[in-house]
């Protein structure tokens, strides 16, 4: 775990959202902004752990045995077992299905969030974003590499996002920004809805309404 992880969680935090990397954090922040959620003001801290290998440490620190904050998170399917073991070790009751994980606030991406975003947009729209960012020719170069020939274009795009430092983080923002709010990948959409419901429930005068679950002043 990065030494600075704990400094990202201020004293006003009531909920910690655990994500594996900064690109996941950027995606959630971008969607929150588009839905007019100020997560920090609502007591929500997003922690990019630097990989699922740190989830046990994070749950110990922020969960019932540590700071006793609310927990939620975005899970890559290949690492689902790491999250389950960490949550069960913390004494959180967890059944065998993904619905059980979701009840605790953890939502699973197939492969990872980049894969979810690429599939939600479709290759043609992702390529249009690459072209607008001046990266399409670089992607074509990657496609001609022997290891990439014959692979599905979705897999090639996902590989391209991770071939240069900072690219994955930048494109997480661009891809979420390009999607209609109704097209958001299910895990990302449900994670934000869950976190917003939990956070605003504890703020007097806030209610959630509308399809995006945006906060509005009012009484219950």
In short:
The protein has 220 residues and is an alpha/beta fold. A hairpin with a 4-residue loop joins strand 5 and strand 6.
Tell me the strand order in the biggest sheet: 2-1-3-4
Overall pLDDT confidence = 89
Measured between the Cα atoms of the first and last residue, the distance is: 41 Å
**Total number of strands:** 6
Count of helices? 10
Number of domains: 2
CATH topology of the largest domain: Rossmann fold
Unreliable stretches: 204-212, 216-220
Biggest sheet statistics: 4 strands, parallel
Tell me the β content.
Answer: 5-15%
- Principal-axis shape equals globular
Oligomer status: single chain
Sum up the structure in keywords:
10 helices, Rossmann fold, 220 residues, globular, single chain, 2 domains
What does this structure look like?
The protein has 220 residues and is of the alpha/beta class. The chain folds into two domains: 144 residues, Rossmann fold (3-Layer(aba) Sandwich), CATH 3.40.50; 65 residues, no CATH class. 46% of the residues lie in helices and 13% in strands. It is built from ten helices and six strands; from the N terminus they run E-H-E-H-E-H-H-E-H-H-H-H-H-H-E-E. The strands form two sheets. Strands 2-1-3-4 form a four-stranded parallel sheet, sandwiched between helices. Helix 5 packs across helix 8. The protein is globular and about 50 Å long. The C terminus is likely disordered.
Walk me through the topology:
Elements: E1 15-19, H1 22-34, E2 44-48, H2 55-62, E3 70-76, H3 80-89, H4 98-103, E4 106-109, H5 113-121, H6 123-132, H7 136-143, H8 153-161, H9 167-178, H10 186-201, E5 206-209, E6 214-217
Parallel strand pairs: 1-2, 1-3, 3-4
Antiparallel strand pairs: 5-6
